[in-house]
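User: My instructor asked us to take a sequence, write out its structure as tokens, and then describe one feature of it. I'm not sure where to start. Here is the sequence I was given:
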Amino acid sequence: MTGYSQALKTLIKESGAGVGDRVAVSVEGESYEGLLMPRPDIGDESCLIIKLDNGYNIGLKYKKGMEMKKLSAGEGGLGKAKSISKLVFDPKKPPVSLVATGGTISSRVDYKTGGVYMLMSPEEILQSAPELANVVNLRSIESPFRKASEDMEPKDWAVIAKHAAKCLNNGDNGVIVTHGTDTLHYTSAALSFMLKNLHKPVVLVGAQRSSDRGSADTTMNLICSAHAAISDIAEVGICMHGSMNDDYCLFIRGTKVRKMHTSRRDAFRPINEYPLAKVWPDGRMEKMNKNCKKRNDKEKATADTKFEEKTALLKVYPGSDPNVLDYFASKKYRGIVIEGTGLGHVPTQNVKTWIPQIKKLVKDGVAIAVTSQTIYGRVNANVYTNLRILYHEAGAIPCEDMQPEIAYVKLGWVLGHTKDLDEVRKLMLTNMAGEITTSIDARAFLY
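Assistant: Let's start with the prediction itself. The structure tokens for your sequence are:
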């Protein structure tokens, strides 16, 4: 019990308990039962930590007269799976495959630090959702790598795309990809552009809370994702909680989704359009978007993974220095997406105007695309004089209603196929994977 105060060490020793044992603790007339936890590396050494049956930890400040009784011995290996029983899947159920890449959905709490670590195996993830066996026949589990989503790179998107195409072409009804949430919408966009001739669902899923927390969202997200993966919606999409409750998930198009909150379970929301569908854990599905691509099991998907990594994403702000563009030019970048203000502005008629640098870069063959920081709505090349200067004179590409992250992924993919700026412009303004909404339904705002 290293780390606890001497008084608590004595109390624990006299009770005969150890980490992971079930104990009863009484202090100042209140009683608590739970598992005895190690003290985190940070925090009050005179605070006893136990895990309650609801999955949450509680800290009990040591007081004179505190009592502890050992109720039962623990199984050891606190925070780790004791044993992994193999789930048995029914071969008569629709076949799907799982591609596991890491993230909170494959993590557990490190009780020494209080933080979360990503060491769960894909098989261990399934222990939190044995109900999957009632929905699908999980034919294969692949884990090409395991990393936090903030550590993802474009080359990782290519790996996932190739695995997904292989699984789909081997007879799977759909593919489920487990992934960290921070950059989940980047990966969903990348797969949307990289998976060509897609006629089956590819469902990305993550978790906002690790599976051993009382508020874990892993189980329902996985179950709803399984239902989405065998549906007739042949899209790349993200399937996550649709509300803070455990009632339904939203299946959202991979090029129209964004993480809109750091920690809420319903953080992923559709932008500028409705979700593809609401999905309930019992398998009910309500289609909400009339523009869903339909399943065709006879088609073969291909992974077109060419991507220009010399692509950047920049944000303008009041007083921003346009010389930052020269840095990327010096590093031989081929494309830059600028998060403009409002309808897609950059500083234009002030001392730090961005227009000369943008003109020079475009002349030198660098693609400059502009989106809006507002998230909702679309850029417009014609409303204001400054917009006309940027788009008609300087040669920037207006990215319609694409989110900045989606435009960045698309531009990188486009530049992986052509460096001709006329062709780049044409492709950026072509709706390839549902990334451009021609008519935005006002009811989708803040859905």
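For the description part of your assignment, you could build on this observation: The radius of gyration is 26 Å. Try explaining in your own words what that tells you about the chain.
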